[in-house]
Amino acid sequence: MRRPRTLPLAIGRKLLQFFLVLLGVTFFTFALLHLSPKNPAELWLIGPGGQAGMVSPEALAAQEKAMGLDRPFLVQYVRWLLGAMQGDLGLSFHSKLPVWTELVTHMAPTMWMTLCAFLGTLLLALPLGMVCAVRPGGVVDRVTQVLGFFALSLPSFVVALFLLWFVCMKMRLLPVIAAGGWKGLVLPVLVLIFQSALKLIRQVKAILRTQLQAPYVEGARMRGVPEGTILCSHVLKNSAPAICTCLSFYLGAFFGGSAVIETVFSVQGLGTLGVGAIGRMDYYLIQGFVLWCTVVFLVLNLLVDLFALWANPKLRQGRGEEEGR
Amino acid sequence: MKKNRLFFWVLLALLALLALAACFAPVLSPHDPNETSLSHALLSPSAQYPLGTDQLGRCMLSRILYGARLSLFSAVTVTVFVFLFGTVVGVCAGYFGGIVDGLLHPAITMVQSFPKLILAMAIAALLGIGIENMILALCLVGWVEYARLSRSFTQALRQQTFLQAARLCGESHGRIIVCRIIPNLLPPLLVQASLGIAGVILEIAALSYLGFGVEEPLAEWGAMISQGRGEMQTHVMLIVYPAVALFLTAALFQLLGEAGRDIIEES
Asked: Nearest by CB to B209, which of A25, A29, A157?
């Protein structure tokens, strides 16, 4: 049976996967929250630290009905899903504000951090990765290897704390708790870049080296094509899908993993929001936060997959045999 | 060649030393790690307290040693579970393909879509704070890496002629998997496990730093850093000691994994 080779069908398949995974993730989170021993109505009325007897049974029952908790589990999930599709993610237990509002107001610092960290990582890792690939064993290669080792063996919050101590307390170059301006984002971005750029350099080096050993490179050299042209016009283009896959992973990781770093530097971003929500058992906020992180990750992956499909037509047929993953 | 092997054995010996120190923490510690004494708070290193005390008067050295025990035990437990589970699932998916693989691929994408630390935090928060729940949470998010790796290795191996020859000789699927695929899979997976332990140690520290890991008075490096943060401006050593301990332990496993990888690449 011949498989269809058209691009639109492949895109359609990817989109279907996207929605299925999104559905699965939200369902799993919803189920997880549902399994928790705490009563959401109780959390709404008295917060996570409350005792069982503080609320009258009538008030509890009324709250449960208002929140729709008396319905079966699947009904609750579908109601949440329908609401989410219209932009209604419920209300935060703690602040009683709409979850969507909370997410939006905390988004700006995290977005800026992610963008700057991503650009910084890219601008640092690509050239250095190319240098390492072309001159393995050279100075740049060895230095990045040692630094990369440190990046993998030190937890990010330790690096963050060290920078906080050194730059803010010892040298007093920046305020310890920044009031929301760009100054508060410099150090978190530096930590993120440090952690990811060094890992990305190794990955770029590995990808480029695989390409450099391909027969077409040798052929091009024998035909007298200059080394620089080989690298930039041919090897880089062929490595692009694989590198993009790595990049999309980092972009997604910045969103979720910057939570710890945001906490260290007291940045009022999504990470702090998420951590606080989890600590306070703020169900709808947790749900919205996970949804947002998942959507971002999946969208990025989708873009990378679509780019790969466009760049490498061989991938448009068949299922699952993807290169560069 | 020999240098790589020597390096590997040296690292393994250091690791054994660390494990011994962790196991014998009760014997090696000069004090009870949870014994508070406000009159002895924030002391500098001395004969009685080799690394000084924290703000509640607890001996730092004892807490570091007990922290080693906790981190190593938890990290190894998590890694053993995710290694076994992930490998079994991955090998089955890679070998049998079809429906099994069709189920696994979306599952992997789903687990990967979660920000790993956030998911671990959520699970730990919902089930309650404590070591067992933390281990459970990390197990639930950690198996994907091993499944992916073993799946791609198995798929690559499946194409090789010696496997097809074995099938022609009438060997059962089970025998092929156990006797032929798994031995070839073990070296790279063990390397991944060593690197994985380093990662899990750091994740445990991060979770405990945020307060989702171990229960309150227990000595754990991440928790110690969190507690020392308040005193950072005056007594930065409260953070430095556990941070150095974290670094040395993670670095040891990291180097071990990379040395193992070098040895495999030679042979």
From this structure: A157
Q: Which of A13, A36, A67, A2 is nearest to A286 (CA)?
A: A36
| Contact between chains at B250 and A153 (C-beta distance less than 8 A) | yes
Mutate to test the interface with B, among A33, A43, A153, A198 (most CBs of B within 10 A): A153
Burial of A11 (0-12, 13-18, 19+ CB in 10 A): middle
A25 → closest Cβ in B114, B122, B251: B114
Chain A residues 37-76 with CB within 8 Å of chain B: none
pLDDT of residue A179: 63
The answer to which of A232-246, A293-307, A310-324 has the lowest mean pLDDT is A310-324
Kindly report the CATH number assigned to the domain that includes residue B254.
Answer: 1.10.3720.10
In chain B, positions 146-165, which contact chain A (CB-CB < 8 Å)? none
Range of the domain at B105: 2-24+59-266
Q: How many domains does chain B have?
A: 1
Confidence of residue B229 (pLDDT cuts 50, 70, 90): confident
Alpha helix positions (H), A36-98: 40-46, 57-67, 73-85
Closest CA to A282 of A107, A94, A102: A94
Residue B41 inside a domain? The answer is: no
Structure tokens at B76: 């190894």
B142 within a domain of the structure (yes/no) = yes
d(CA A97, CA A88): 11
Are the Cβ atoms of A294 and B114 closer than 8 angstroms? yes
- For B97, the 3-state DSSP assignment is coil
Q: Lowest mean pLDDT: which of A260-264, B59-63, B138-142, B174-178?
A: B174-178
Residues from chain B that touch A24, judged by Cβ atoms under 8 A, are 106, 110
Q: Which residues pair with B59 in a beta bridge?
A: B53
**What pTM value is reported for the model?**
0.83
In chain B, the residue whose alpha carbon lies closest to the alpha carbon of A279 is B125
Can you tell me the distance from the alpha carbon of B199 to that of B207, in angstroms, rounded to the nearest whole number? 12
From CA A23, how far away is CA A25, in angstroms rounded? 6
Measured between CA atoms, the residue of chain B closest to residue A259 is B118
A242 burial via Cβ count (<10 Å: 0-12, 13-18, 19+): buried
For residue A50, the distance in angstroms to the closest alpha carbon of chain B comes to 15
Q: Is residue B43 part of a domain?
A: no
**CB interface of A with B, residues 134-163, below 8 Å:** 149, 152-158, 161-162
* Average pLDDT of the segment spanning B221-239: 85
Q: Over the stretch A179-209, which tens digit does the pLDDT of each residue have?
A: 667 777 888 888 889 888 988 888 888 888 8
Query: Is residue B52 one of the residues assigned to a domain?
Result: no
